Amino acid sequence: MIRRKAGIRLNRGMSEKPQLLLTPGPLTTSEATRNAMMRDWGSRDPAFIDLTRRVRTRITDLAGGAGTHTCVPLQGSGTYGLEAAIATFVPGDGHVLVLANGAYGHRIADIVEILGRRVSIIETGEDTPPAPAGLRERLSARDDITHVVLVHCETTSGILNPLAEIATVVADTGRSLIVDAMSSFGAIPIDVNAAPIDVLISSSNKCLEGAPGLAFVVARNESLAASVGNAPSMVLDLQAQSVGFQKTGEWRFTPPTHVVAALDAALHQLEEEGGVAARNKRYSENCTVLLDGMRALGFQPYLSHNLQAPTIVTFHTPADPKFDFTVFYDGLQDRGFTIYPGKLTKADSFRIGCIGQVFSGDMRAAVNAVKEVIEEMGVTL
Ligand SMILES: *Cc1c(COP(=O)(O)O)cnc(C)c1O
Question: What is the pLDDT of residues 203-243, one digit of tens each?
């Protein structure tokens, strides 16, 4: 048995069966994306420099930032990108206000504190989006807050936070907006100029459906230029990282070459699929199939429908004491589905993701597997 931080016990290596990942990431990738990792690249080879440039341009374009923003990729998972963004864009005397309604928001507040910057938090419940009016009031009062951080889709619950409204308030009050768009970028339309965002952070392995190992920011050019010398770190200095790309097109330190190649392939497939609008439609269908199917079995979703992002759905744990999460998890794995073994901080719950290379037929099969496992356990809903 291994013990997860969230307190759910799982049996190690129960199933050898290939798994469809119904988690918040890493996700199921396409064969074409995995195949893109089958060759080796020299990191200073012109072909790889080209590949990096293409990936950076594609991401900037996807964010609507052509001409105003620059994509700076960084080795590591999404959290590396978040820490690098805070380190780079918040100066030593900066004061960050984090809008937190889940674990990821609180993690960002911890990052700000570890980096020795001032941090304040506006906390709302895990099922409650931050209120734009309250934020306006806070920022209109004379205080020294310089940056506001919003988690666009709080993957803790799957709640979609009101990016456009918050961005308007932050712009009106002359502060800088940093957005954790980890589990929304690629799945939910974002335009860094329409709802003004100074720094957006995301990663390769969520809704872009790439392999894990790469984070990136899409940063406003002025913000990048103004951040020279801010970072109390060498590897997390995104300003220095971007200078490397500008000067030679090369990464400062060994890049995850295979992951960059996989992301390039994944971005190409996103385009072929019809862009963010088409991916949003597919994920929304997945989400609807999952919600309808689970509701029909008697499960209760945690969020009301208008707050639900089409990325991951939180369900209340059934009240029947015969429901054992470990048995449930293992039963689904035996049937080829890996769900997410994490809990909310308060409500007793479990989560099923609907993003990655998965389709409505897969979600129907997953719901069917849930039905079988529940029947096997003898759980009444
Ligand atoms: C996945 C995720 C992260 C980053 O997590 P890593 O494990 O470092 O990749 C950060 N914020 C949100 C909202 C996420 O969904």
Answer: 999 999 999 999 999 999 999 999 999 999 999 999 999 99
Q: What is the enclosing helix (H) or strand (E) of 20?
A: strand 20-22
Residue bearing tokens 């049996």: 11
Quick check: CB of 157 below 6 Å from ligand 1?
A: no
Task: Among 242, 272, 302, identify where a domain stops.
Answer: 272
* pLDDT tens-digit series, residues 74-133: 999 999 999 999 999 999 999 999 999 999 999 999 999 999 999 999 999 999 999 999
On whether both 180 and 82 belong to a single domain, the answer is yes
Greatest distance between any 2 Cα atoms in the chain: 64
The CA distances from residue 333 to 11, 126, 214, in Å, are: 11, 28, 27
Q: Is the CB of 83 under 6 A from ligand 1?
A: no
Assessment of whether the complete model's pTM goes beyond 0.90: yes
Q: Is residue 8 part of a domain?
A: no
Which residue's C-alpha comes closest to atom 12 of ligand 1? 182
User: Which amino acid is present at 167?
Assistant: A
Q: How far apart are CA 221 and CA 228, in angstroms?
A: 12
For residue 155, which atom of ligand 1 is closest to its CA?
15
What is the CA(347)–ligand 1 centre distance, in A? 21
Q: Are residues 267 and 342 in the same domain?
A: no
